[in-house]
Amino acid sequence: MSRKHRHRENKVKKMHTIIGGYEKVLEDLGTIEQVRSVITGVISPHKSEQEEMTFQYFTDSGLKLLAKTTEAIQEIFIVCEDGDKQRVLDELRTRGHLKEKVKKMKKGKSKGSNKQQNAQQRDPLDNYRVGKNDMPKEKGTTLKDLLNPEMLKQLQEKSSEMKAQERAQEDQRRQAEVTRREKEQKELDNNFEYLLNNSKQDWKQYK
């Protein structure tokens, strides 16, 4: 059950409702020598799997904690001198008020032993695949591999036929271009004015 307070007892300044059974905990926080005051903050409707108090971060005036229950979460602010922040945090940990998740490093195992253990735990098929890593990789299956010989032969013949047609069409286009240019040149050769201009003679002589 939560209790509503709007006053101060010792160093605990009760600005909001105190959730769960944290009243005794807050009073204990106020007994820390470096703590100037403990202020209860806003209550959030978010829930926690279990009741615990966690450190969130340092503020300009001290520390911010979160008091968590299975019904709600409440902000707790601890006011202290700037130089005492870390000392207060250490004292909270010493008194067992904070629950923190710390990942422990495994000791006594080298990388070599880990690799050997992993190799022993692999099944035979995995070991076979590891052994094949040094071998050249095979090419992926293509459409050519899926066709039967007869169909593949037909496609190759069709491809050759299409290439021959393309070459013939290209030859026809080149020949047509050559013919067009020869025709234009012949017409120019029969043009008296064109011949006169190219000869650089005075056309007035022919009037």
TrEMBL record:
Residues 100-112 have a biased composition (Basic residues). Residues 99-207 are annotated as: Disordered. Residues 123-142, 155-189 have a biased composition (Basic and acidic residues). InterPro entries: DUF2103_metal-binding (IPR018664), DUF3886 (IPR024980). Coiled coil: none annotated. This is Metal-binding protein. It comes from Tumebacillus algifaecis. The lineage of its organism: Bacteria, Bacillati, Bacillota, Bacilli, Bacillales.
